[in-house]
Amino acid sequence: RMIAVTPGAPAPGGAERLAGLTLPGCANAHSHAFQRAIRGRTQRISSSFWTWREQMYACAERIDPDRYHRLARAVFGEMALAGITCVGEFHYLHHGPNGRPYADPNAMGEAIISAAAEVGLRITLIDTCYLHGGVGIEPDATQRRFADRDAAAWAERVDGLAASDVCRVGAAIHSVRAVDPAAARVVVEWAAARRAPLHAHVSEQPAENEQCLAAYGMTPTGVLADAGAITDRFTAIHATHLAAADLALLGQAGATVCLCPTTERDLADGIGPAGALRATGAHLALGSDSHAVIDMFEEARALELDERLATHVRGTHDAASLLRAATADGHAAIGWPEAGSIRRGAPADLVTVDLGSVRTAGADAVNALDVAVFAASAADVRHVLVGGRVMVRDGRHVSIDVAAELASAIREVTST
Amino acid sequence: RMIAVTPGAPAPGGAERLAGLTLPGCANAHSHAFQRAIRGRTQRISSSFWTWREQMYACAERIDPDRYHRLARAVFGEMALAGITCVGEFHYLHHGPNGRPYADPNAMGEAIISAAAEVGLRITLIDTCYLHGGVGIEPDATQRRFADRDAAAWAERVDGLAASDVCRVGAAIHSVRAVDPAAARVVVEWAAARRAPLHAHVSEQPAENEQCLAAYGMTPTGVLADAGAITDRFTAIHATHLAAADLALLGQAGATVCLCPTTERDLADGIGPAGALRATGAHLALGSDSHAVIDMFEEARALELDERLATHVRGTHDAASLLRAATADGHAAIGWPEAGSIRRGAPADLVTVDLGSVRTAGADAVNALDVAVFAASAADVRHVLVGGRVMVRDGRHVSIDVAAELASAIREVTST
Fold first, then answer.
1. How far apart are CA B35 and CA B409, in angstroms?
2. Which of B239, B248, B298 lies closest to B269 in space, CA to CA?
3. Between vectors from CA B96 to CA B90 and to CA B99, what angle results, nearest 5°?
4. CB contact (8 A) between residue B52 and residue A404
5. B217 in Cβ contact with B249 (< 8 Å)
6. What DSSP element (H or E) covers B72?
7. How is the beta sheet containing B167-173 ordered, strand by strand?
8. Are A209 and A241 in contact (CB under 8 A)?
9. What whole-number distance in Å separates Cα of residue B300 and Cα of residue A228?
10. Which end of chain A is more exposed for a tag (fewer CB within 10 A), N or C?
11. pLDDT tens-digit series, residues A32-63
């Protein structure tokens, strides 16, 4: 932890000076680690979110706990190199083929947790309740691997997950498609009893809204509000297609909305109302979600740049507020409210950004943050510290060969 | 030049194997090199394209031929590192303070041309006619530095620019704001007589359309068509806000539209109708324009990703067509139709992309191009050859320290 923050103090003897711009570590508030394996493998055909999902499911089918451990370790390594010090892993791939639980029903979750620990990343395992293949529809063969018998079984399983210094546990309602309102209430109560973060995919696609309105006469946000989900511990993922009343519900509760701009571009979701949400009092966080790319600078600026495309106005979100979404507000959304800031008492999770790369050259003290947020890339991250320990030095992970591990772990789950 | 392209041939003794994915060199079909200096310096206030332009003008005021030479050399170095082997420099900053011509009236253009030669980049100096500060409005103090006395004076000056093995000269009508229809016709005739490329900024902002309709009763594309501009040598820059008739004019002529997606995001221009343009028969090219970032992979995927945001459909532009925009069609648009392809007789302008970085790891032979276009960054470019000579090796320029030159050149034109 940081024991003092003193501007302009002389460096004590033997201190290591962090070159470039030092920022708080980033929180990647929404991740499905295994989806990194399909990067570049879903671009060949004209398609929709729903056909993309079939390709993603085919990859999920090839994953078991050992493979997931190796894949997540490599993906978390890529995150570390990008300046991410804490990940919220929205975890729904729980069970074995055809939905048969593993001997340890949390084998998958524990594989992910140990992968993060080995790389040096903090993690919140956001264990996700998933029961149905759609409103009133049984899960298909792949979805059975996501599904617990009912919400009580989900809660019982999740109570078997152990937190630690570097791991916390949160809850998710996958979506109003996959969790009925009565089950949602069980998840809400589980999270409330533990003061745990509660996440849900919300209104990513217009079809979800239409199905929800047809089934319940309410929007997804309305259904979740009715189940008691929407509090200041709640994070709506995406929230791309909201009604005005949804904005008010999220804002009045002081909830968080986690946008995943590079995934929302990739999946043709559309542009969410980030500026309007912030105006209502909602907090914003950021996630790399499907990992089409892993670059928190790109996510941060995409939030503002896509708002510019939608509104034709520059400057709804300045660099400081984009950084806050990528750091403090993201950490708070995944249950680490003490992290993501440079201040006394906060964990010493720090990232340095090279201000002398070809992308950042020309930055001065006044505009360094603007240059980092609007022009740096993950390749400009030089050093990353978690809890005061160096995890990345000079752009290399201190203990694993990330690119080599990515290549071999992806081969295991994609080659035929 | 490439003398043979033979798949699967054994390497001759002493040959150098280019690791990774080898692609044709990229053409950056629309650049204002000096605007690199304001990267990260225009993000602090809520603003519009027009207030951004004031900040850009303030930078332009600090530039003279020597400073522009140093700045362009560094910016072209950044382009080289990003895999760009040919740049179309849309050049309008011609004259000294208050519009007084330099002793050599092409001092600025020649400074830019020699900067490209020193870095090893091919260049088309697209010399730009600029006469008015708006329809019927005199140029202001800064704009006088852009302006020639009239179109005949522009043509006389531009005839003084010498082409070479690595430099060609093209023409531009800055916009219908800055060039009246009679003057546009002079530029059109100059380009037609020389079979030179002809470019114009077209419909980047709704205000331009409104002013043009009010003055001429036609859209900017309509005014340009009326002046005879729209042929297969014409490139419309941006073309964000087009009417249906504009699309037909551009498509039927087999003209090119150069989109600059990262700039169009940055300047809140909006999303242009790239898919609809291609459907009418128009060609697409790409430019980094204001250099908010310089990354042709990001430009290429942004074309498709922003189309996804606008249409909610994936796959209007596949990786091969995005690559063609970044290479062959971009080269053709700036007057190098023989370049930008890997085939016998083409200049040996080649770029290798690392397929073993954390961004690209997991690529295989089938999806390597998809991974490069949708997930690589400029930082993944390893080697760049122009005319068979190595310009970039292992991610470093062979003769200049690009980042250091950027920092010092930018300091000269921004520090107070």
1. 12
2. B239
3. 85
4. no
5. no
6. helix B65-81
7. B26-31, B84-91, B122-129, B167-173, B198-202, B234-238, B256-259, B283-286
8. yes
9. 44
10. C
11. 999 999 999 999 876 788 889 999 999 999 99
Nearest to B167 by CA among B335, B328, B1, B294: B335
Helix/strand/coil for A392? strand
From chain B, pick out residues whose CB is under 8 angstroms from the CB of A403: 356-358, 361
Q: Which residues contact B156 (CB under 8 A, 6 or more apart)?
A: none
pLDDT at B295 over 80: yes
- Name the active-site residue from A180, A246, A289, A306: A289
Strand, coil or helix: what is A169?
strand
Q: Can you spell out the DSSP letters for A209-256?
A: HHHHHHHHSS-HHHHHHHTT--STTEEEEE--S--HHHHHHHHHTT-E
Task: Please report the pLDDT score of residue B48 as a whole number.
Answer: 83
pLDDT tops 90 at residue A25: yes
- Using alpha carbons, select from B251, B254, B91, B279 the residue that is nearest to residue B170: B91
The verdict on pTM exceeding 0.95 is: yes
**B152–chain A nearest CA distance, Å:** 37
Q: Return the active site residues of B.
A: 238, 289
The CA distance from B37 to B413, in Å, is: 7
Nearest to B236 by CA among B285, B195, B271: B285
- Is residue A122 a contact partner of residue A29, using CB atoms and an 8 Å limit? no
Distance CA A77, CA A349 (A): 16
Interface size A-B, in CB pairs within 8 Å, comes to: 203
CA angle A188, A191, A193 (to 5 degrees): 105
- Under an 8 A CB cutoff, do A361 and B313 touch? no
Collapsed DSSP state (helix, strand, coil) of residue A92: coil
What is the rounded CA–CA span in Å between residue B243 and residue B128? Answer: 25
Please name the amino acid found at residue B364: D
Distance from B178 to chain A by nearest Cα, in Å? Answer: 23
**DSSP 8-class letter at B369:** H
Residue carrying structure tokens 């990354």:
B295
From chain A, the residues in CB contact with B294 under 8 A are 358-359
Closest CA to A381 of A19, A81, A84: A81
